[in-house]
């Protein structure tokens, strides 16, 4: 510090010719002063020894007193006295640094307590006790707001001896605590009984008097702009609380808010990491293990704050701990891997780490559960380090906190993006929004509605997978194919670019079935050419999904056109020509190319009750000719054309084709194309 350097220079000037900037010292000590005597040097050496030993202030007066009563010249005695004053200032500065270091170390330990403790009551008791130790007060306590009763009640105390005080309730605005809870601002008083800034009540004053409290400091527990309680530190003697003490108690109040409201874990964890990082830098000079912890925290936190992905974090953990790293989610799916082989996590080891709150070693692999409160987010595994010592083990466990933060950040971003995508999907499927604005909204999400899209409605039984798992799998597919996924009218709906919805539905049913290890039924419709067509396509895909389940085709995917005449009946736009072409296409093409009339033979065959003899009689040909023609038809349509369901499809297509060939006047006609 500048002041210290100036005073030390002044004190040493008795043995040098250096000119000082202190006018008083310069006047009293000539620039050509002789060298200090051995006795003076011994007294100066004693002062340095006292500094080195951390001696109490009263011991520093001994060298100066001895110098005054010894055989020292006036200049040497003055130099020793000045050196004593400088030494006392240095001692005060060192004491302040040590106190600040102790506070940071205690905050570091408090954050560690929060990471290990799971019971909210235990967390609050730990915080209140820590506040009592850090501020050195007689009593610390914490009150929480009761929104229903409109007051604040005592939750945890440490050092209290009064039962009435431990059960007191404060109305909003009453007393010091009620004022803190109402205004969301810290308040302190050197002597509460005589401080008229606060609204005194008989209940509060009697409880404070019975406890014997005089100096009280209260800081709010805030969640955003909402105050949920107050953290206090109090003494039974009058005193003044410093700004540093207010700041320190406020930091502990923030930790208490973390324990009370797990929903705010994300923001509070980031604050805790910053505090831990600062603490580890402060203690760096005392331990090589702490220096490595600081470096790890710096690297991992910087990765998170710079938007690094889970693979970057896995690589960083492996580099710090000199091993391979695996990160899995709560369901055991691999999220990232660095410098090791892929291997599924041991459910038993993850459960053991989760139960104990510590990393565990299984067959030479260290495993640590990644937790957010009681929620299991996943696990991290470290390979190639069977000899992990205590310091590295703690560092590995701290890495799980950073991993939890990143996973929570990823989940928060994913949930926000899914909500935005779900809103867009809902507007597309209902048709209620202005179609002109939908393409721009879609482009911001990386989706181009200018491309033809197919609509898929999914269904998986509860035995296969609950809806959240089906939705999560659909969302991953939508992201990979630049589409949208969400829940609409209790249906899991997936939309992505596709020209052929039927084959796409079949492929999607197979892919989802493998992911979820159970049957998934997919009804499809489309492709749609613009936002206005999505609502109709959704209704058609939903009917197709229902028809597939009714037909016993669970675990398959199709579009209505793939369901034959049932699809024609269920469709909004009846494409009879397309149905005929799909069902009789090979026979019609053969007749057109060869000039034959196998279509007529097939019609007569069905009209004759599937009797080859009666069909030959009606066609005025030999029965062998009918057999040959039917054999040809079988090669064109497939050997299963005799099956009842195929036969029904063929007969319906033949009737439609017969009607479409000629009108009532015998003129050739065609069915119109379906309306767009």
Feature tags:
elongated, alpha+beta, 6-stranded antiparallel sheet, 676 residues, 55% helix, single chain, 16 strands, disordered N terminus, 5-stranded antiparallel sheet, 25 helices, 15% strand
Note the total helix count: 25
Major β-sheet strand ordering: 3-2-1-6-5-4
Which percent range fits the helix content?
A: 40-55%
Secondary structure class reads alpha+beta
Please report which band the strand proportion falls in: under 5%, 5-15%, 15-25%, 25-35%, 35-45% or over 45%. 15-25%
| Mean of residue pLDDT values | 77
Radius of gyration over all CA atoms, rounded: 42 Å
Distance between the termini: 84 Å
Q: Give the number of DSSP strands.
A: 16
Main sheet record? 6 strands, antiparallel
> Judging from the principal axes of the Cα atoms, what is the shape?
elongated
Low-confidence stretches: 1-33, 662-676
How do you describe this structure in short?
Helix content is 55%, strand content 15%. It has 676 residues and is an alpha+beta fold. The strands form 3 sheets. A 6-stranded antiparallel β-sheet has the order 3-2-1-6-5-4. The chain has a 5-stranded antiparallel β-sheet with strand order 8-7-11-10-9.
């Amino acid at each position: 510090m500048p002041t210290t350097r100036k005073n030390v220079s002044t004190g040493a000037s008795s043995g040098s010719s250096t000119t000082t900037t202190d006018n008083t010292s310069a006047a009293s000590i000539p620039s050509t002063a002789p060298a200090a005597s051995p006795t003076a040097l011994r007294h100066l050496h004693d002062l340095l020894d006292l500094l080195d030993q951390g001696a109490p202030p009263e011991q520093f007066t001994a060298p100066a007193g001895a110098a005054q009563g010894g055989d020292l010249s006036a200049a040497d005695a003055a130099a020793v006295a000045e050196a004593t004053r400088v030494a006392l200032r240095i001692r005060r500065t060192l004491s302040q640094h040590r106190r600040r270091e102790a506070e940071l170390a205690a905050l570091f330990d408090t954050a560690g307590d929060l990471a290990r403790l799971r019971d909210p009551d235990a967390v609050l008791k730990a915080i209140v006790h820590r506040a009592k130790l850090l501020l050195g007060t007689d009593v610390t306590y914490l009150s929480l707001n009761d929104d229903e009763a409109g007051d604040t009640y005592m939750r945890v105390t440490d050092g209290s001896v009064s039962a009435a005080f431990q059960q007191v309730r404060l109305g909003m605005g009453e007393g010091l605590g009620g004022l803190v809870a109402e205004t969301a601002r810290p308040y302190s008083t050197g002597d509460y009984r005589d401080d008229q800034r606060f609204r005194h009540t008989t209940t509060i004053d009697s409880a404070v008097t019975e406890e014997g409290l005089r100096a009280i400091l209260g800081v709010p527990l805030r969640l955003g702009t909402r105050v949920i309680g107050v953290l206090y530190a109090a003494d039974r003697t009058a005193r003044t609380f410093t700004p540093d003490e207010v700041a320190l108690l406020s930091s502990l109040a923030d930790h208490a808010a973390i324990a009370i409201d797990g929903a705010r874990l994300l923001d509070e964890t980031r604050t805790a990491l910053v505090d831990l990082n600062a603490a580890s830098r402060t203690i760096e000079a005392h331990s090589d293990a702490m220096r490595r912890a600081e470096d790890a925290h710096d690297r991992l936190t910087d990765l998170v704050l710079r938007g690094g992905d889970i693979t970057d974090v896995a690589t960083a953990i492996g580099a710090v701990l000199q091993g391979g790293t695996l990160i899995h989610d709560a369901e055991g799916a691999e999220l990232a891997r660095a410098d090791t082989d892929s291997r599924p996590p041991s459910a038993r080891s993850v459960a053991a780490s989760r139960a104990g709150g510590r990393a565990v070693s299984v067959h030479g692999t260290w495993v640590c559960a990644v937790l957010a409160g009681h929620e299991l987010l996943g696990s991290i595994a470290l390979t190639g380090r069977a000899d992990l010592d205590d310091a590295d083990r703690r560092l590995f466990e701290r890495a799980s906190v950073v991993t939890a933060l990143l996973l929570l950040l990823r989940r928060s971003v994913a949930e926000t993006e899914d909500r935005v995508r779900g809103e867009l999907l809902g507007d597309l499927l209902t048709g209620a929004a202005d179609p002109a604005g939908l393409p721009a909204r879609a482009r911001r999400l990386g989706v181009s509605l200018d491309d033809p899209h197919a609509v898929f409605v999914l269904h998986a039984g509860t035995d296969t997978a609950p809806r959240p798992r089906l939705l999560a799998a659909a969302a991953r597919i939508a992201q990979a194919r630049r589409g949208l996924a969400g829940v609409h009218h209790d249906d899991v709906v997936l939309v992505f670019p596709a020209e052929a919805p039927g084959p796409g539905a079949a492929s999607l049913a197979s892919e989802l079935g493998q992911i979820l290890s159970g049957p998934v039924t997919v009804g499809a419709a489309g492709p749609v050419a613009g936002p206005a067509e999505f609502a109709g396509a959704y209704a058609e895909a939903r009917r197709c999904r229902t028809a597939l389940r009714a037909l016993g085709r669970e675990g398959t995917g199709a579009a209505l056109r793939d369901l034959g005449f049932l699809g024609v009946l269920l469709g909004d736009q009846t494409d009879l020509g397309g149905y005929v072409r799909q069902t009789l296409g090979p026979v019609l093409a053969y007749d057109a190319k060869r000039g034959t009339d196998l279509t007529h033979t097939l019609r007569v065959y069905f009209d004759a009750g599937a009797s080859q003899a009666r069909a030959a009689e009606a066609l005025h040909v030999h029965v062998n000719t009918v057999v040959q023609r039917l054999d040809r038809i079988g090669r064109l349509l497939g050997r299963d054309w005799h099956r009842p369901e195929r036969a029904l499809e063929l007969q319906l297509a033949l009737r439609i084709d017969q009607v479409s060939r000629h009108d009532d006047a015998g003129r050739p006609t065609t069915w119109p194309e379906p309306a767009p």
